[in-house]
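Work Package 3 (structural annotation) set out to generate three-dimensional models for the target panel prioritized at the project kickoff. During this period the team completed the workflow that converts sequence records into discrete structure tokens, so that structures can be stored uniformly alongside our sequence database. As a representative example, we reproduce one entry of 398 residues exactly as it appears in the project archive.
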Amino acid sequence: MVGVDSAAADWAESGLAYLTGPADGPPDFSRAAVLAEARRVTADIARLLGVDTDAATILAGRAALLGLTRQGRVSAGGATRLVASADGWCAIALARPDDVAALPALLQVDAVPANPWPMLAAWAATHSSDTIVARAQLLDIAAAALGETAAAPPAVRRDGNAAAPRQLGDLLVADLSSLWAGPLCAQLLARAGAVVVKVESPARPDGTRRGEPAFFDWMNFGKLSYAVDFDKQPEAIRQLLSAADVVIEGSRPAALRRRQLSADDVPARSGRVWLRINGYGDQPDRAAFGDDAAVAGGLVGADAGGPVFCADAIADPLTGLEATRAVAQSLHRGGGELIELSLAAVAATYAALPPESSTSTAPVVPPRPPPPSPTASPLGADNAAVRHIVAERLCAPC
């Protein structure tokens, strides 16, 4: 490695270079500073929670488990693409069947072909980025204009009374999140010793349960699985939230407000920390995924023909790490706080790091998978145990 910049060498060895750059060209090293900053965050987490974790594994582990590689202006996972607009670049995600079904309305046509991307790209080229994003939002399609979001730290406000410092093993965490960022935060708290309850609706469980089992297990092993119908059993959710020391909210806030289960509706336990993660801070109910949020923050790779995706849905794991640090810091202050982070703002914060040279002679390797994880609990397997824990906490000191 003599003569190779250490940041570039780390980026190459981590597998992140393998995931960034044009599909038919050399890997891109311009965002190598992201890994170095993520390592500083994991060092803070180790100091605050006593949990050691490898930043490179966190950022590239899913891609390793799924066998992903760089695809340029197609996301590593394949669901999101960068398309040129009339005045810049946009990311559009077609991650769900409903997204594809909404395309005729977006494009104002009767039908779209089996491969809708060429038609979608031609339409985008004649519209401004703002128009594309606004129309996509109306149809609940995740879309973002390149660099539309500014960097911002976690927003923290007082939300109840602080408490004396507590042992992590005494904490109850209600994990209402899904996919990656929130579950990662909850997983690290579980590894620190907290009792973590993963809450899912039987009708709409975490979408990652349907994907690669190794990824779901990695994010969710060691958590108790609590399957509750949010519409039919809101009181069961309310009791859990009332008993929890930490609440991780990853759904759209309107969904909880409608059921009177938001941070403003549930009385705060002394020292409670409520973490709220969304895609776009000032638009909390806007659809978002890790790749489009990264583009919104400007966290993309470099290519002569335009931007390319940086790694694999990188806004998700970066936000999960930042959220974990923010929760740990709040617990050390005594809690009693509501913390808000957005995927796009976190991505913008990392995009603001000084760029590196886009080329390097460092040898590039594929990302390495995380160590095998224990199997996560089946859906609803721990309902009785959770009800017992909640009843004991709400009864104390009766």
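Residues 50 and 305 are 44 Å apart (CA to CA).
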